[in-house]
Amino acid sequence: MELWYTEKQTENYGITAKIKRSLATEETPYQKLDMLETEEFGNMLTLDGMVMTTERDEFVYHEMVAHVPLFTHPHPKHVLVVGGGDGGVIREVVKHPEVEKVTLVEIDGSVIEHSKKFLPTIASAFDDPKVEVIVGDGFMHIAESREAYDVIMVDSTEPVGPAVKLFEKGFYEGLSRALKEDGLFIAQTDNPWFKADLIRQVYSDVKEIFPITRLYTANVPTYPSGLWTFTMGSKKHDPLEVNEARFHDIETKYYTKALHKAAFVLPKFVEDLTK
């Protein structure tokens, strides 16, 4: 008998993967967590039935969350990651020598523990001396912070459950207060095929708060539609005007110096969401 996992991404469309076995399942205080071993993508983490990351394609998302903002900001000494309990973003952040400290605030400690056990190549930087881990509410952490961070990365789930408030205008206002005078943030903002209205609203809200607002994309095969967007709000630094001297060699599989700016070249139907 074959076992298949299906994520129903809309009422009429889904993605499916053949499963070798279930590694772990837990009803945490916040969501249903499953760790699955798949034939095609290796170990896969799902939350509330949605794919969060897989061993095979995780590098795309994590590199594009981390390196685009860190090469945009000239002095990213203090970094905050909201969510990201699988550890992939902080793994990429600590590759930057100018980063002195990265704080990860993850609301669900079970995500961290299961990732350490079943996704060790992703969750490899939790013991790095630069990393501080807080199991707590990222929304409240932002609300209580003032001019504390150079760069903030919002690595949330899709806007359901505890992540809904991370897609609201009030949260982006909080991000602005938590950032230093030349700070910037980046947030994953879902896909343009099924969530166009969400992207349009987020971009509009961020643009009202931050002088520089940019949208960029990446290809993540196991995410809905495969085309994923990220929204950046910046007080001063424009990702399209990065000084060439800022780029230095780091080990990547997806992100490159040329791709940094190319990712901001949008298909017209996506560009239209920013108008």
UniProtKB/TrEMBL annotation:
CDD domains per the UniProt record, alphabetical: AdoMet_MTases
GO BP terms in the entry: spermidine biosynthetic process
Catalytic residues as annotated in Swiss-Prot or TrEMBL: D155 (proton acceptor)
Pathway info: Amine and polyamine biosynthesis; spermidine biosynthesis; spermidine from putrescine: step 1/1
Gene3D superfamilies, per database record: Spermidine synthase, tetramerisation domain, Vaccinia Virus protein VP39
Keyword Cytoplasm tagged: yes
Catalytic activity as recorded in UniProt: S-adenosyl 3-(methylsulfanyl)propylamine + putrescine = S-methyl-5'-thioadenosine + spermidine + H(+)
UniProt function note: Catalyzes the irreversible transfer of a propylamine group from the amino donor S-adenosylmethioninamine (decarboxy-AdoMet) to putrescine (1,4-diaminobutane) to yield spermidine.
Family, similarity comment: Belongs to the spermidine/spermine synthase family.
Name of the protein: Polyamine aminopropyltransferase
Organism: Pullulanibacillus pueri
